[in-house]
Design brief:
The complex is a heteropentamer of chains A (about 100), B (about 550), C (about 500), D (about 625) and E (about 170). With about 100 residues, chain A is mostly helical. Chain A is about 75% helix and about 0% strand. Chain A has a single domain (about 5-100), classed as Helix Hairpins, CATH 1.10.287.3510. Chain B is mostly helical and about 550 residues long. The longest helix of chain B is centred in the middle third of the chain and has 32 residues, at about 320-350. Classes of the chains: A mainly alpha (about 100), B mainly alpha (about 550), C mainly alpha (about 500), D mainly alpha (about 625), E mainly alpha (about 170). Chains in contact: A-C, A-D, A-E, B-C, B-D, C-D, C-E, D-E. The interface between C and D is medium-sized, with 35 and 24 residues.
Chain lengths: ~100, ~550, ~500, ~625, ~170
Amino acid sequence: MTIPITYYLILSAVVFLTGVVGVLIRRNIIAILLSVELMLNATNINFVAFSRYLEDLGGQVFVFFALTVAAAEVAVGLAIIIALHRSKESINLEDFKLLKW
Amino acid sequence: MTDSFPWLTVLIFLPLVGAAMLCLFKESAVRPIAFGITIAEFAVAAPLWWLFDSSSASMQFTEQAVWISRPSIQYHVGLDGISLPLVLMTTVLLPLCVLISWRSVETRIKSFMALLLVMEGAMIGVFAALDFVLFYIFWEAMLIPMYLLIGVWGGPNRLYATVKFVLYTLAGSVLLLVAILVLYVQADTFDILRLSSQSYAPTLQFWLFLAFFAAFAVKVPMFPFHTWLPDAHVEAPTAGSVILASVLLKMGTYGFLRFSLPMLPDASKAFTPLMVALSITAIIYGAYMALAQTDLKKLIAYSSVSHMGFVTLGLFTFNLQGIEGAVMQMVNHGITTGGLFLCVGIIYDRTHSRLIADNVGLARPMPRYAACLVIFALSSLGLPGTNSFVGEFLVLAGTFLTNKLAATLASLGIILAAAYLLWMVQRVAFGVPSPVFLPKLHDVNAREAAALIPLVVLVFWIGVFPNPLVSRLHPSVNHVLARALPQPATETEAMRLHDETIGPETPPAPSGGVALARRPNVSDTPPFNGAEGIEPLRKEGRP
Amino acid sequence: MTLSAGDLLLILPEILVVAAACTVLAIEPIMTPHQRDGLAWLSLSTLAVCMGLIASQLGNPAEAFGGFIRVDDYACFWKLLLCLVSGLTVLLSYSYLKEERLRVGEYYAFVLLALAGMMVMVSAEDLLTIYLGTELMSLSLYVMAGLKRAEPRSLEASAKYFVLGAFSSGILLFGISLLYGATGSTRLPAIGAALAGHGLDTPLPLVATILLAAGFGFKLAVVPFHMWTPDVYQGAPTSVTAFMAVASKAASFGAFLRVFVEGLGGLKTDWSFLFLLICIATLVLGNSVALVQTNIKRMLAYSSIAHAGYAMIGVVASGRSPELAGNAIGIASVMLYLAFYAFMTFGAFAVVAMLRKGDVEGDEIEDFTGLAKRHPLAALLMLVFMVSLAGIPPTAGFIGKFYVFMSAVEAGLAWLAVVALIFAVVSAYYYLRVVMVMYMREPETSTAASPRLVLSPAISIVLACAIAGVVILGLYPGPLVNLAVQAVQALQ
Amino acid sequence: MPYALIPLLPLLSFLILGLAGHWIKDKAHLVAVPAVVLSFLLSVTVFVDAIDGHNMTIPLYTWLVSGSLDVHIGLSIDRLTAVMLLLVTGVSSLVHVYTIGYMHGEPGYARFFSYIALFTFSMLMLVLADNLLQLFIFWEAVGLCSYLLIGHWYERPSACAAATKAFLVNRVGDFGFLLGLLLAWVTFGSLNYHEIFSAAQETAAQTINLLAPFGGIWEVSLLTLLCLLLFTGAVGKSAQVPLHVWLPDAMEGPTPISALIHAATMVTAGVFMVARLAPLYNLSPVAMDVVAVVGALTMVFGATIALTQTDIKRVVAYSTVSQLGYMVMACGLGAYVSGMYHLLTHGAFKALLFLGCGSVIIALHHEQDMRNMGGLKDTLPITYWTFVIGSLALAGFPLTAGFFSKDDLLVAAWSSGSLGQALAIAGLFTALMTAFYSFRLVFVMFWGPSRVDPHHADHVHEPSGVITGPLIILAMLSIATGYLGIPSFLEPVFATDAPVEPHGAAGIGIMIAATLAGLTGIAGAYYVYVLNPGLPDRLARRWESLYQGSLNKWYVDEAYDRLFVRTTMSAAVALWKRIDVGIIDSAVNGIGRAIAWGGWLLRLVQSGETQHYALAMAAGIVVMVTIFFLS
Amino acid sequence: MAQLVFGYFAGVIAVTAMLVVALRNPVYSVLSLLIMFFHVAGLYVTLHAEFLAAVQLIVYAGAILVLYLFVVMLLNAKQDDRYHRQWRVAGFVCVPLLLELLVLFAGGKMEPSPLFSADQTGPGTDNAKAIGMTLFSTYLFPFEVASLILLVAMIGAIVLAKRDIGGSGA
């Protein structure tokens, strides 16, 4: 019984697009970062599936690094969120539009 | 003799180095130094007139060095009979520009003089360049100095004028860059001489011609692309106007002559009706515009449009007279219009007005000035005995050979030129000066006279003895013609077809040969048989 | 695979940069404010040594760490440029930081760490290292953009940059994963070989290409992935903006070209069409919106978008030509363009940074009014940078455009060159507007009384380097051209 | 070659006065007069040489060589030239002398002398030309001198306007001349007279399609076209209808130059040109007829206007127009000799009349209106008698030069065919008018009660010798030139193969008719202005419209103003505002604005909201994927 | 069987992912994400990536999400009252993209590898060891770069988030 790689691709595409939609429609920066996490997870599913499919560990290692980077991004992102909140008492991304045009 | 001394390098870089040097001196010392540099430049250029071998069509005083190896772009300069007069004219005009700006430019004189010198170097570079990229660099390098000259030292509406000037000319010349690159891809060289000796597919020529046209027509400026000129002229300081009118405009027609005709002969011929139509339009339309002006500089600017129409008209006659006339007209327009702008500058320094209505009746308080003004105006309207007549006559002669209607219409422009210039002279030179300005109207001083007199001398010198100048053009123009008219045998036939106006029944009569033999000195241009195409002898016998 | 001395030697420049960064971080807290100036000199000397090392590596291509990175002429070209720009950034920041009252320690460390990331990017031979290098660079830049934490704009820039950066790196990563699935490797030569041999029996590589293009497009700031650029450039501290506009863009181009030429070379007919659209959109948008800007940093941001469009022409051209020769001139023209662009843009930002004084932000175009009277030299330099950015000879900007357009024409894209050049005319308008404001408007009395410009020795060196680059490379670009052409031959 | 000095001496004089006039000032005549007198003496030797049938060509230098277009400046002397030389240098010398008195104390004294020296030079070069281009060059140069001299009193607006008008009208003529010249070059491959003449016969049958550029067919004879184009120049220069309008206005210039340029020499250049190109014209009967008719029209037209003018110089000016019409008509009828003969005698008596007018004007302190004169014959006896002699010559009174030349002319006309006979009758009628108005002038100016402004009346006295001297000499010449045998001297120049018809009885009849016409005119004038001083006013009221028409020069100026001047100017302004500013410039600015406007619009996309940016990125991806999806 | 397992995991992952986006309270979003992470880890296990499954749980679920949760609490983030105004447009953009991707992926000739099956043999038990070995030999260089990334993140977080910086700043 095999599961075609296509299934994994479809799953990851759904999750990825969900993440994209999240980035586009959520106002809360934390929620947006969560959506980015969704995108990264979709990627990771892909990598792992392909790694299995190709019998190559490289994909899994890539996921490992992606996780690391995700962690780093979260750290910076949350720091930025805190700084934003401190300056404007808001973490709605919409509220930050001093810079435009 | 020509290889021993790097004439052109010195000519190009002396002013540039001079401009850099100016920065080291005090503001007060700048004027004489700048004048000295331009005079030195003239002193270097003047010997070329005699050193030039007027029997040779090849480039002279050439220098060649690799500049960029990939792709091969060379520092390759040289002069032929076409560029020599233009270079000389430039070197003559620049000292005068310095003189005329002596007092009229008060602020940032150092920058001003430096920019003038940069302009001089770049202008000579344009005329001397034999590598297309080098040409383009010099061509474009003039833009910014001119921008600053007008924009910093110009009149009240200078910002609009400068932007228009720069964008207009830039828009034209960017297409030139593409054309240069396309040519490179075709011929694998940027060398103008090598590019000129190859032939290109007609479709390609068509597009390249359009690109060249965009650059050169804007610079000339030809009819629908001329509107930057009046604005730029009106706002520019005197020296800027002189340079603009006398030299910069010539670069456009020079481009047509140096590039369009020899490189794209087929397209040039295909476009001839358009070019002739635009030239005629420019001549008549420009004259009409000049008639409508109340501002002296605008009037002269529009007259430039009209006069440059003669140049383009002459270029697209494809015969010796027309093209030589065009080159003559280029030089003459430089001298005459330069003189007119100097005159306007002088009066502007006094009354601070360029309006004709303000500057009236100058002959009584300023007789010498009025004399110069009248002389330049008469020259500008093409009075025989002055320089402009030579060029216009040759152009008309050349045009008449190929297109009688065009020549007739162009001649109408001469009537109109007389109308607007005499109208201007009548108001400005004659009549009674307005009492408001009378106290300010003192005649030209020695410095201003020194700026005017060389041009007056040139006006008459060229007008009375044009042959030394014209004779230097023959080989080079024939060379261009040989490229533009590759098949001498069929060319006369083509011209006959082109010119339907001469009688219908035409078995060639034997008397044509007789006519040729009667004037042995005509056939002194043997190597380039294309020139035979200009032979006007189409004696049709009786039916 | 074990660690070998040879590998370490190859990445010695990176190691040195990282070591310097760590040193700066470590010793900064124990230094007095006065001594902290020394950190700049430490960074600079490190960079100088690095440049020497990199230069010595020219001509000796080698792979390290099992092919994760490749130190070839191509990488060295970019690394030299990046080190130079970083050095200039340090110098520029030297007085700017004082003016902004920013902490120097972290700042220099971030510059150096970002540089390390960029160096990894341009020499990476594997999508993983490219990704990691990109992230290293980006994270540093996110933070640097927000360094003026007291300034809401700075923070906003940082937030926007971060959110969109994370978003784009997600896209990039998704693309990488697809490419990995399609080709079985993240190694560029392997990908290239797989795509060349395997053909296109699945749509994955194409989708991956699009996603990679989007991911890189963000870093390169090309339409429609450009929209962060103006906001971030405007909000970030000026020295950071300069660094971002120049170094980050150059490094991204370095990695981007390597990925698309080495890895996705087999798909070049597809991506060159893609980039053709992007390129035109970028040229149109960048130039026309820059036209209506009043803030010079924002204007320069749009201009940098437009310049990415010009560089993109070379990419398109390289994709269009069937043989490698055309490829080479296209890629080389991009490299040259970026190099020239680096000098002129950095110079322009440096002048903007000079105007920062006290309460005067100095980044509105109006603030340049009458600069020619107040500070003729600065005005002259700005003039040259603007002229160069507009691509008017005899400046480096012209040579850059010349090569880009030459590659386009050689690839049969003369019409693209025409379009691009017409927009170059548009660009001349807004660049010359700065000149106009400086030279042709009289300073108002209030601004005339404004304090003199900050002209420290450090910033003088920056300007001198930039102007030398613009003028000398404009007049004598030969050696750099040869270097770029030689570097392109290193690409497989 | 000393003959080269004939033109060069005036040139030298011009250069000295032109460059150093500022310092020479009142001593200008010391330079100018000797030069021109010497020139005159040399001309006399030329004339003597020419009697021996001595034709010569003196090449000076190569002006221009461009392919087959080669132009040499040189001096070509034959009998026609010799006569013209004599006329030009002679009248010029007298006018030079006269000027000493007339212009004395004027600020532009040296300038004036330099101008007339330049004019003399140019006119001499014109007549000495051996090719069309040299002719054209100096043709324009004399026009320039005319312009400068008309505008000599440049602070008078009317003078400036007249100068400009003269130049412009001449330009219109020269436009045709230039085209004709170019056509000649294209047709014959040369501009040299001899080469043109020798080739002309071969081209007589050629035609040219005037409508070729428009695709139509309108074949006209090449030679006819050529001749007519060249004649256009003559129409302008010789003030023929319809380009006569400048000449009366040219009287704004100082009187000496009215005499020299606008009576004796320059205006005759057109006649000279037609005569010079006689071999060409002879080949084109159509052109000849046109020339004759234009001349006749001018002749009648000028005379009708002269009848009513009140400005004495204008009367003489219109008389000049009319007399030029005679000459042109003669040329058109093939009577070149008669035309040239009349040209010569006219040069003498018309210069005399102008200088006489000048003398009166000086005496009356620049009064030119004849209604403010009268009874001057006692105070200005010399002027009076010389003026009467001039008027008699003009009226063709027997035994004066005018009598011989005019009779010769009319006889020649009569004998040249049916057209000639019709025109001869017109000529007779004109002769009547001529006699009438010339004696109207005499009677109103010199006879009757004085109507001089009382302020000046006491100071009226005969001017000095330098003014009366030339008057006397010219008066003598006005008679003497009739007896010099000019026609037979000129005959060889225009010798054709056609048989010369003897005049016979018709000739005598015409002679009698002409004499009667002249006497009738004088008698009529005596009747109207001396016997019945009130009659003119009554006549004017009786034929109000005719009188007003004549007084207002048949409204030609007004018509031209409406038709050409104003339309041109308003067209210029309209073109400028509509096309240049309205269309071209606004298109240019519009492009700029459109781009900026587009920039504004595109800028709005940059809303500042991060998620819009993310959306743009996503949309970009969608577009790209869609493109691939579809392809 | 395998398909059933995959179906379960995939279903839960997809649903929770959508919930993350759809739920307007950040806390709930984080919690759905947590559930999703667990299931992703489960999926990893079925794919013989046990090591990654562990890392997913420990690092992602354990560390990162807790951090999120912490910040949500710290900032007292309330429920969003609405989505971003552009949600409709976003839908218009993303739905076609999803459809296109699905069509492309499903239509592609991506045949299952013969090796790729649900059988439990293979490198499974050695997965962690294998990755560990690779990580510190082949992937040494990326590993070092990753460490630098963490360094930057750490300093960056400090720089951005710390309250007042000695002496300077506002």
